């Protein structure tokens, strides 16, 4: 009996230890970074075609690269295969493509771009792309908030349905600076809460958010706002810092800094929010910075990679 009790005690202790170790491993795994270090050349002033962008990504340690849906759709099968082979060689995957539809202007232009979207979405899907996104301008000179909301919901719903037919997720980015949303006669949505209203109105399963530390900061949001989302809600992400000595309501949208450049934006908290929700998509820099734009391709890509890696080291 004594030996049996000792054996039971040992088994119970072993099971408890195993459960504890599993919980620890699970907790550690949940805190690991799942998102990719992404290169989007146009956002850092780099002029590069698709293959050149992949080469730069591999050279400077990026893990994903922005696909150009228009370019990919215009390639021959052999050219597409060359792109995939190069990606494999450089050990990079696709990030999030830009929406190749001008939905903000006249109806004729919108309908023309929309008609070409199925072919471009199909090319992206064929080559393994899964994400596409755009930004939402937070103001308009002619349309009231309600009119603008209806236009966005109607046109983007049509785009979203096409993308959904091709297995692509679609993300929208709200734009936060007060200097921009007050710059025209009518303001429009400029916060996560406002964007979620538009997502609900579009009401298609593949629609989500593009987060940006810059807009998160200028909209006065916190890590709790990020934690209110799930990984499935977030399609893309931008990481930026802000100039020093400028009040948040006076920040200008086209004058940003690379992440970690000034410490004005709490990049660590922002990234911790992404970790907490298990975000597994691309994170790229989008500083619209004149000094960076003046560099040659290699210098700009290297500077961006170093800044992003420094930020990622915080978590």
UniProtKB/TrEMBL annotation:
<dbReference type="InterPro" id="IPR013022">
    <property type="entry name" value="Xyl_isomerase-like_TIM-brl"/>
</dbReference>
<keyword id="KW-0732">Signal</keyword>
<dbReference type="Pfam" id="PF01261">
    <property type="entry name" value="AP_endonuc_2"/>
</dbReference>
<dbReference type="InterPro" id="IPR050312">
    <property type="entry name" value="IolE/XylAMocC-like"/>
</dbReference>
<feature type="domain" description="Xylose isomerase-like TIM barrel">
    <location>
        <begin position="55"/>
        <end position="310"/>
    </location>
</feature>
<dbReference type="GO" id="GO:0016853">
    <property type="term" value="F:isomerase activity"/>
</dbReference>
<keyword id="KW-0413">Isomerase</keyword>
<protein>
    <submittedName>
        <fullName>Inosose isomerase</fullName>
        <ecNumber>5.3.99.-</ecNumber>
    </submittedName>
</protein>
<dbReference type="InterPro" id="IPR036237">
    <property type="entry name" value="Xyl_isomerase-like_sf"/>
</dbReference>
<feature type="signal peptide">
    <location>
        <begin position="1"/>
        <end position="27"/>
    </location>
</feature>
